[in-house]
């Protein structure tokens, strides 16, 4: 049996309806697994354990198998609300018409083809499907609207809202409640109104309910997670005993104390007492720089000083990580990127690199492909690679803009052959990005960043391109980059949080219909989640200015809310001038 503290052992031993409120790093998973183990040892069966993602369901299964053996899975079903409900429909209402994920993809593809100007066939639709950050983007919003209209028109139900339909049918008595005796819900703060209603119905009909969660870690408001409100709703509707897990086993108190000082600014939260098991000896520090480039350079220098420490680098959005990514690549340091493509992994950057590879390797294929895309190569008036090589005049069939691009590419070729790499990269980058922007490609603006990154690398073109070959492989590394959202549930000895700046966190983008105070509270919880990932060291970096569109940055307002912490202000440092 795993070691459990007294505090952890109480909810484990209580087999009634219970509601566990926890703090970060308090061993929630350990408690859940230990509880299931005790239940199985007492001969109890029919246990459903709900998690929020398939990934966490798999992790839970692994933990359970290692603690209780494979046979445990005969009595314990571990899955998401969504899959539970799909199975339930298949069992009790098999003829109910629901759209499958394949149906949805095909409908979306049709909408995409109809609405995207100058799109590049299925490859860009795949970009749409795989993009993890769709909300707020005009095209995605438009597609969503069209999709909703489609569903409404057809009166179809989709697998997306199966939980909501299931709840409605259960309420009307047209669908039985779940076939289990015990329902356990992990990450309860992430439940939305339908999922909470579902839990309440099961509870009222006699199923034993255990919920575990931390309202301070509710960061999915944009996916309708109710967080604190959900805790209150459950309390009102279900008679359950509440337990607190208030000992943190992860972080040093120099990290934990400021994090809780900051989160105490939230009005809508459950008050908690906090004990720090790891005691003193850690560090939470803030560095303020003139620009984002300085921030990135500092982070990479720190990593180079002590490269064997497990490190997470977090930011509010994937785009905020771009400077650090570029800097890591420029120093040939490999890193993992969780929950999103690497900064240069997109069609425009691939096209740029494959053109360079083709010129470097004296093959025509990559260059010809690029020319076909840029100049719309139909067999008849195709711009051939040989025309670029021989510095001929641009074909008269091209528009003036295309002719300028043709000349730029041709110059780039000449410079490369003369080993003037920097000039070649500038020429090619300009031509390609202008044309790809015109053709409506997403991420065209990353090409100049890629060119700059290549300019900073040492060696000849072959050696520089080899760095990118390495970077696009899936490598294992102790440096992990991800958004603050993706860091939930993880921990690391050292955590950098970059772009901890005003206007970035709290983000200036408030979702439609969200109250501004609630928005700041959610952003504060996000900062809280990110900071509490650190075991020994948390390093926050911010900058004074860099983005002309967004104007002045300065440190995030949350820095002051952390109380007295070590701060280094290099924002007036003139070394960059
Ligand atoms: N009783 C205990 N004694 C020693 N270490 C413990 C104990 N309980 C948990 N831990 C350790 O504390 C760390 C945090 O545990 P865990 O990740 O399960 O916390 P959590 O509550 O899920 O955190 P979070 O909500 O922040 O993701 C882990 O490294 C875990 O092994």
Description:
By secondary structure, this protein is α/β, with parallel strands linked by helices. The chain folds into four domains: 168 residues, Rossmann fold (3-Layer(aba) Sandwich), CATH 3.40.50.300; 58 residues, no CATH class; 162 residues, Rossmann fold, CATH 3.40.50.300; 125 residues. Helices cover 47% and strands 13% of the residues. It is built from 23 helices and 17 strands. Strand 15, helix 22 and strand 16 form a beta-alpha-beta unit. Helix 18 packs antiparallel against helix 19. The protein is globular. The model has no long low-confidence stretch (mean pLDDT 89). Adenosine-5'-triphosphate binds next to helix 2.
CATH architecture label name of the largest domain: 3-Layer(aba) Sandwich
Structural domain count: 4
The set of bound ligands, ions and cofactors reads: adenosine-5'-triphosphate
Percent in helix: 40-55%
Question: Helical element count?
Answer: 23
In terms of per-residue confidence, which ranges show pLDDT below 50 for 5 or more consecutive residues? none
Mean pLDDT: 89
State the name of the first-level CATH class of the largest domain.
Alpha Beta
Overall strand count:
17
Largest sheet: 7 strands, parallel
Alpha-carbon distance between the termini? 61 Å
How much of the residues is beta strand, in percent? 5-15%
Structural class: alpha/beta
The shape is globular
- What is the CATH superfamily label of the largest domain? P-loop containing nucleotide triphosphate hydrolases
CATH topology of the largest domain: Rossmann fold
What's the Cα radius of gyration?
27 Å
| Order of neighbouring strands in the sheet with most strands | 13-14-12-15-16-11-17
InterPro entries: DExx_box_DNA_helicase_dom_sf (IPR013986), DNA_helicase_UvrD-like_C (IPR014017), DNA_helicase_UvrD/REP (IPR000212), P-loop_NTPase (IPR027417), UvrD-like_ATP-bd (IPR014016)
Domain UvrD-like helicase C-terminal: 253-489
EC number: 5.6.2.4
Protein name: DNA 3'-5' helicase
